[in-house]
Amino acid sequence: MEATVEPRDSGQIVLRIVIVLRNVGGSRSGPMSVAGYSMDPIQLANLSADEPRFKYEAYIPENRFPIDEVPVGFASQFEVAFALKAKIPGGSYPFLMKIFYGSTGNKMVKAQFNVLIKE
Length: 119
Description:
mainly beta, 8-stranded mixed β-sheet, globular
């Protein structure tokens, strides 16, 4: 999966990943939040607390997620952005993403993939 690394006006460096969300269930998704997990050199905001195969993690709460909820049968792409502690050299790096959903955030889907950072 291709990702981009870019600076914001504030000087913060951001990792942007485009994801596709698709609701194949029988009801609306409810509010969603996302957790991302990485290893060096992708240094996310925190040390990983629950995924021992990954060193770092970051969380995007539901009030900062790009869509409130996904209707039944809906599919579209969205961009999520994670703040980084340092710039990343070009390469392919493992990444794990968990999306929590449901009225109480008690359901979860996850995907592990490599992000491709171009020089």
